[in-house]
Specification:
The protein is of the alpha/beta class and 346 residues long. 32% of the residues lie in helices and 21% in strands. Bound molecules: iron/sulfur cluster.
Length: 346
């Protein structure tokens, strides 16, 4: 899918791209409706635009996507393995929740340079940044599927392959298109951007006029452990991230979510729980405990250990949520995305 020649976004307004620059002004609105609301899959379905323009769009701006869908047997989760124009592969996941929410987890890069030891994407290494329309296309793909069930994408999380803050411009452009009333019209508060703690990105996001949620992947309460799990911690240690989060909160008054993936024998000791309380108790934040999905040699703790860990956090006054992972059987769960069909684990 190639949208950038058709439209761009300035603040929250769609503006015509090169292909539409000689068209009357209403054409952009008409075409945006076809793409984002009617969710057409080829330009022949755009019957109210002139044939000559349809042909031009067909030639220069395909609406098709090369994707393979893989459904979980155990949960209403679907993973899409998308092959991009240059043959790079990315993955996107749709999670259907019992309460009616439909969350799409999008990728922002093909591969990732940051090499977190527990993450399948990190093993691939960095391939390239995705363009804004390659990010938006991941949501459109699932919006098309849900439309057939009279449902729609309600939430988008930037937690798939790649580090969003290292592809900031494209991520922000994509957020604005998702949020724009003439785009996918998804509320900004239903959109979350997750980072390992790239402070320049957090600082920039604090100054944007868009109310998206910020999540920070913490995963360890001390630098010594975090250095081992996430090499990027040497450049962005915990205190530096917390300073940035403090400024972010002062600017936006929005509560930050810290993510903590619990890995058996690595970061799940009760001492670490106590340290987390000491570290985070003075911040206005939530802690999202995520049970590790098996990746390489890493495994989740036993349920009783997770329970004890969580109790310490709650007794210490932290606001804790526990996210249930979806799609483990299709390697669609957190940390398992690797641009494949789910068989690269060692
Ligand atoms: S966890 Fe995120 S930042 Fe770390 S290697 Fe995986 S994709 Fe990259």
């Amino acid at each position: 899918m190639n949208l950038s020649s058709i439209l761009k976004i300035k603040k929250n307004n769609l503006v015509a791209g090169d292909l539409l620059k000689d068209e009357p002004r209403f054409r952009l609105t008409q075409i945006a409706k076809y793409i984002f609301q009617d969710l057409i899959e080829n330009w022949e379905q755009a019957t109210s635009i002139p044939k000559v323009l349809r042909d031009k769009l067909n030639k220069n701006s395909s609406l098709t996507m090369n994707s393979k869908l893989i459904a979980s047997k155990h949960s209403p989760t679907i993973k899409s393995l998308i092959t991009l124009k240059d043959r790079e592969k990315i993955e996107t996941v749709l999670m259907r929740h019992k309460d009616g929410r439909n969350t799409v987890c999008v990728s922002t890069q093909a591969g990732c340079a940051l090499g977190c030891v527990f993450c399948a994407t990190g093993r691939i290494g960095f391939r390239r940044n995705l363009s804004w329309d390659e990010i938006v296309a991941q949501v459109i793909l699932f919006q098309r599927i849900l439309k057939k069930e009279n449902r729609r994408v309600t939430n988008v999380v930037y937690m798939g392959m790649g580090e969003p803050m290292l592809n900031y411009e494209n991520v922000l452009q994509s957020v604005r298109i998702l949020n724009a009333p003439k785009g996918l019209n998804i509320g900004a508060r239903k959109i979350s951007i997750s980072t390992v703690g790239i402070t320049e990105g957090i600082d920039r996001l604090a100054n944007e006029d868009i109310q998206v949620n910020l999540a920070v992947s913490l995963h360890a309460p001390v630098d010594s452990l975090r250095n081992e799990m996430m090499p990027i911690n040497k450049k962005y240690p915990i205190q530096k991230i917390l300073e940035s989060v403090t400024s972010y909160f002062k600017m936006t008054h929005r509560k930050v979510m810290f993510e903590y993936v619990l890995i058996a024998g690595v970061n799940d000791s009760l001492e670490y729980a106590e340290m987390l309380v000491q570290l985070l108790r003075k911040y206005t934040c939530m802690l999202n405990l995520i049970k590790m999905n098996p990746v390489y040699k890493f495994h989740p703790p036993k349920p009783e250990q997770i329970k004890r860990f969580k109790e310490i956090l709650e007794k210490g006054g932290l606001e804790v949520v526990q996210r249930y992972s979806f799609g483990q059987d299709i390697k669609a769960a957190c940390g398992q995305l690797a641009g494949g069909e789910g068989n690269i684990q060692k």
